[in-house]
Design brief:
Distance between the termini: 45 Å
Largest sheet: 6 strands, parallel
Number of helices: 14
Radius of gyration: 20 Å
Shape: globular
Strand content: 5-15%
Number of strands: 11
Structural class: alpha/beta
């Protein structure tokens, strides 16, 4: 999409740093190593070292600018990104600009929920309308979506090729329907199947449309879904949030949700990722069958089940792991032998962590 002209608010120094061909080449080398890992991890780097990922996402101190002046917010993010740009690290450290308004309630607000801030967290009141009556929003007049498009266009107008651009949290159909209705949404899967399917389809169609807008407007080499600095995938991969899948059975996920999730990921040129943060192993058989699912991101409670995921998934499905007390780095490497895994943390000399670990 043609932009309205390069922004004159970005300093020449920041513009030069974030268009430096050497830095862009280094980023693209890491993308190629990551792409190789997605293909099986047979290049020299992935045979010798465990792949580690830890990017940066500098943000202005005045968080309110994101909601009132998205152009200035993005410009300040870009200036900070240039200041903090590092080079030559022995892990993938992409510099990212992400527009995170309304947190996990971004889609809720577009669908009419009252979203409010309390104790530095975004919250949303449940809808009072019946399940099954959800209507597709008028995006042309939606304030939240308008802010998001302004932020994306400001990023394009800055004319910087190095930073990755992360979307707001577009989430997933199941996460959003539970955000909108709470436990009533889960009960409706048993009591009013037609109504819940109607609303799930409205939600998923909306999320897919927004993903499509970003794919159309942001260069594929820079576009990343949410948490762009720690869930960075090769260009052309989608992502969705599977947090709420811990609340439903494997059969319910198979019947109601998996087709929607797989369709969303299938809109992208390459297979994508699902984020998990709870107890989700009941879904491993379905995850294994989803042709458009290539990566699973595990943190907190989900990370403790690393061994079950690696043994239960397809050989071409990989894990992004946030190490934690229940799954420290050495235990993760013992289980994985350093294969089919991305460690989402900042560690020096990744090959040292493979000492004493048998390779698969």
């Amino acid at each position: 999409m043609p932009t309205e002209g390069k922004s004159d608010m970005i300093s020449k120094k920041a513009h030069d740093i974030l268009n430096d061909s050497k830095r862009i080449g280094e980023r693209d080398l890491w993308f190629e190593r990551l792409s190789d890992l997605f293909r099986g991890g047979n290049d020299e780097y992935n045979r010798r070292k465990v792949f580690t990922l830890s990017g940066t996402v500098p943000r202005p101190a005045d968080y309110g600018l994101a909601y009132t002046e998205p152009e200035r917010w993005i410009e300040q993010c870009i200036e900070l990104a240039a200041e903090r740009q590092e080079s030559g690290k022995d892990n993938f450290s992409p510099v990212c600009v992400e527009y995170p308004i309304y947190g996990v309630h971004f889609i809720d607000r577009i669908l009419g929920a009252h979203v409010f801030e309390k104790k530095d967290q975004w919250n949303a009141d449940y809808l009072t309308t019946p399940i099954g009556s959800l209507e597709y929003p008028d995006l042309e007049s939606d304030e939240t979506w308008s802010l998001s498009k302004r932020a994306a266009k400001a990023f394009l107008n800055a004319d910087v090729a190095l930073p990755l651009f992360g979307m707001p949290t577009l989430s997933s159909a199941l996460n959003i329907i539970v955000n909108l209705y709470g436990e009533k949404a889960l009960a409706a899967m048993l009591e009013d199947e037609d109504a819940v399917r109607h609303d799930l389809e409205i939600i998923n169609d909306l999320i897919r449309e927004l993903h499509g807008w970003y794919r159309e407007h942001i260069p594929q080499s820079q576009l990343q879904p949410v948490i762009s600095w720690s869930r960075t995938q090769p260009p052309g991969c989608g992502q969705l949030c599977g947090c709420t899948t811990q609340l439903i059975s494997g059969q319910m996920y198979r019947e109601f949700i998996a087709p929607l999730d797989d369709a969303l990921l299938g809109d992208y040129p390459n297979p994508g990722m699902i984020h998990l943060c709870g107890s989700h192993t009941q879904h491993i058989p379905v995850f294994r069958e989803m042709k458009n699912l290539h990566a699973l991101q595990l943190n907190d409670r989900a990370a403790a089940d690393l061994e079950e995921y690696l043994s239960g998934l397809r050989d071409d499905q990989i894990i992004y792991l946030n190490p934690c007390d229940e799954m420290p780095i050495q235990e993760a490497l013992r289980i994985s032998c350093g294969r089919r895994i991305v460690l989402c943390c900042d560690i020096d000399a990744p090959e040292k962590h493979m000492s004493g670990i048998p390779t698969a």
